[in-house]
Description:
The structure holds two protein chains of two kinds. By secondary structure, chain A is α/β, with parallel strands linked by helices. In chain A, 48% of the residues lie in helices and 12% in strands. In chain A, strand 1, helix 3 and strand 2 (86-90) form a beta-alpha-beta unit. In chain A, helix 10 runs antiparallel to helix 11 (248-264) and helix 11 (248-264) packs parallel to helix 17. Chain B contains 13 helices and two strands; from the N terminus they run H-E-E-H-H-H-H-H-H-H-H-H-H-H-H. The relative contact order of chain B is 0.14. The longest helix of chain B has 34 residues, at 62-95. Chain B has a single domain (61-283), classed as MetI-like fold (Orthogonal Bundle), CATH 1.10.3720. Chain B is mainly α. The A-B interface holds A 17, 20, 97-98, 101, 104-105, 107-108, 125-126, 129-130, 219-220, 268-270, 272-275, 278, 281-282, 287, 410-412, 415-416, 418-420, 422-423, 426, 428, 445 and B 15, 19, 40-46, 123, 126-130, 146, 148-149, 153, 233-240, 251, 254-258.
Amino acid sequence: MKKFSKVLAAGLSGAMIVTSLVGCGGQKATDTVTAPAEVVTEQAPEAEKPAESITLRTVSMFGGTDPMTNIYGSSIEEFMKSNATVKVEDESATSDEQWKSKVLIDFAAGNEPDVIFFFTDVNAKPLVEQNKVVSLEEIKSVYPEYASNITEAAMASAKYAGDGKNYAVPVRGYYEGIFCNKTLFDKYSLELPTTWENLEKAIKTFKENDVTPFAAALGHVPHYFIEHFILAEGGVADHSNQDVAAVKETWVKALTNFKTFADMGAFPIDTATSKHELQQQAFNDGKAGMFFDGNWVIEGITDKDNTVIVPMPGTGNGKKDPSDLIAGFSSGYYITKKAWDDPAKRDAAVKFVEHMTTTDLIKQFVVAASGGAPAADIGAVEGLNKLAAAGAKMAGEAKQCDSAIDGWLSKAAWDYLLGKVPVIAIGKEDAAAVVDKIIEIQNSNK
Amino acid sequence: MIYKNKKIIWIFLFPTILFISLFLYLPFLASLFNSLYDIPNIAGIGKTFIGLKNYIELFEDPIIIDAIKNTLIMMLLTVVFELGLAIVLALLVDSTKVAQKIYRTIFFFPVVISATAIGLMFILFYDYNVGLFNQALVKFGQEPKLWLDEGKALAMISLPVIWQYVGFYFVIILTGIATIPEDIYESAYLEGITGFQKVRYITLPLIKGVIKTCLILVITGSLKVFDLPWTIAPRGMPNQTTYLLGTYQYKTVYEASRVGYGCTIAILIVTIGLVISLAVNKFIKQEEL
């Protein structure tokens, strides 16, 4: 017994030391993973001599609850079938602030994947500035047909604003708008909020009849309100102006709307502490008349036949055309320098991205995600539900589109603004003071 | 000392000292160093030296005052309820003969549940529309309450934090009580002591050391508590009033992307922790058995 406990003690301490060292040296972990893969391919009973197996690490936001997860997964299976020498290890997860941080940390630690589907806006700053991703220009110089099916408009929108170059291949664009519960609007004989007066009337009537006008979680996701208030007040011209000091008046008027709307009772009683998903559920349960979101939420709307989407109305000062939208292409497939510089992986990575961005696959993605703007010309789209078709129509009819402010505003300034929205709504903070601070943070981040 | 050759002690301690230095002290020194810089992203690109500007900002930041205040309130709540309840439970369970093991398992159970899972569960308890608490209130004919309003939010966030770790301290104190030799109690019974007097004059003084250790653990734990508050009320909701030092630091580094300022907050947390721990150490003297 004594001997056994000695052996056990030695074994446990050994295990503890080994497990504590496992975290060090990312290289070691990947090597241990590639080794078994090579063994498997070499044992395959093929007539030709065993080819060298390549492991491609890919990351995307098509994981977890994202509606495109299944298509993405099956596309990867197809790719591996037709490219027997490549093993794809995918680590995708639903995109949120935490996932974005994780990606940036991986890149900073040298643990980046070979191919990543990520944002092309300000979130890409560390990737581009650390020189960790390859520009499309460089890829095309070696593979001229790369991303040749992507439209000019999509490429223009998916540029990295910092240096005007393209680093990612876009697949699908987004659009945002107000989702309206048509049943509730008809019940109280209200017109859809296509004008500012209609919007205010809808809020007042809903409030009087104990229906929450906007299903909103201002403490959690006020993003859409910020974008659309500024768009409504200043149109695309002011919304896209990155010199906030020059359009300060628009911003102040727009942000003051949080207080005005709150006083009108437009937001639910727990807007400061609720979560966006719970508010979406309240909208689905018919407890709220309107819900601000983007095309990605369409799959999660339960009553698609009685829900409509409309663009944000202008405040009436003539700056915003009624059809103007927040929309754009803000994500795409990157090939990392790590994969590009590795001659074995370069070809596999290029083939992978080309496989994932064929026009047919883009069409499937657009249908699965219930719409959104396609990055390639996919022709007429069948198989879209009523709401998605209406949304795609709205996106197609927009005179002008502008991508979201959180795509170019510095993270520190955007985070400051997010935190101050519910405080402005309850009147404890002055919109002008908040905008001044945003300008200050923006200037110090230049 | 039993060992004649003190070198053996050093040989056995060396791996742990190395480990702690590399993964605790070195990062702390790095944080101290980084707090003198403005670092706009986690990769450290664009690092600029700004001297003590972060510390000046720390003193002028209104949210830090709220965060310190909230952290101290949570510390008080956890000491009184978490530790207090743990002591009461331990005393009660110690006097039962039957089913001591069952109680230990039941009370320790919440400790092994993931804090995030508990947080998500409590979000569904506190929700205004579909939450369990409001559903129960409505069933009994009451009006639904806004559980996370500015007045109650901090208490509501502390509730699951306290609930989760009562069992942990309960087990530690119960073990401490079990080490008290039976003969002390026997001689006390001979002198006609009552139950309450037994607790006050014998049990509590003899577990003072254990209580002191638990007190320091509770205090330092509440200083860095993060997972539960962040899951239930991220970004200090409602209206930036429920920031704790741990959650504010997380937001500063990972959402506002200001790593230098985040390091400054980290130094503040460690300083406050050290001061309070030293004070506790000084004021509660160990009773020798």
